[in-house]
Amino acid sequence: MFKQALDAAADQVGICLTEVLMPFGDLPVAQAMRYATSGGKGLRGFLVLESAKLHGIDQARAVYAAAAVEALHAYSLVHDDLPCMDDDDLRRGRPTVHVKWDEATAVLAGDALQTLAFEVLASDAVSDDPAVRLALVASLAKASGAQGMVLGQALDIAAETADTPLTLDQITHLQDGKTGALIRWSTEAGAVMAREDVTPLRNYARAMGLAFQIADDVLDVEGDAELAGKRLGKDADAGKATFVSLLGLDGAKARARQLVEEAEAALDPYGQAADNLRQAAQFVITRNM
Questions:
Q1: pLDDT (tens digit, 9 = 90+) per residue, 149-167?
Q2: Model confidence pTM above 0.90
Q3: Between 3.40.50.150, 3.30.450.20, 1.10.645.10, 1.10.600.10, what CATH number should domain 2-286 receive?
Q4: Is 221 buried (19+), middle (13-18) or exposed (0-12) by CB count in 10 A?
């Protein structure tokens, strides 16, 4: 049931992204934007739609918020793959944007996807209430900026040349921004749109987001590069501290399972209505890509 729900959400968000990207024409930058937002699991968009369902938000409105965060996530990947960042030539089993086009096009496509996210969130399609739209825009700006995702990326870059490897607490803080911030925003979006308390979903997202990153570190060690659709083993090659290097492979897996249990417990106030979110938490530690 979860896989069907995840695929259905990805289809919904894909249709919405096609719609919002249509006016951009067929310049290389627009082609690159469409390319960057295609493929992938669509987990963040799924989380938006599921949290909206929990709070009785019309899916026809929630899908725009889901498309916004997927556009912003795509921008982060395009820029993260650049030679000046992670220098990756493969993403989702395909050439990265700067490889398929060029670095300038990749930079511009990423810039345009980032601004598109806020343009979509500010539109009436998301909500008739301007206060709700403002809350979504402001919270996504914080989650994606120098207090969230960008902070995590900056800490990650700094770690590459640090004299000593990061501690477990430092890695947790880094990943709370780099990966966790957008997952939290996505999970809380439905409650924000309904003007309801975000605390249960925030607690869920914090645990699930950290489990997601630990699972990524595990996959980097024992995953299949073909299934993952990207180069693996980079952190070990660079000598970077990871959850696996600090906790050991078995210890990292155990910690991820514990976090999934915490995430599931946080959903108790929602009862069976949150079963898809419970299954999403299980998915992040059992996926092979």
A1: 999 999 999 988 888 889 9
A2: yes
A3: 1.10.600.10
A4: middle
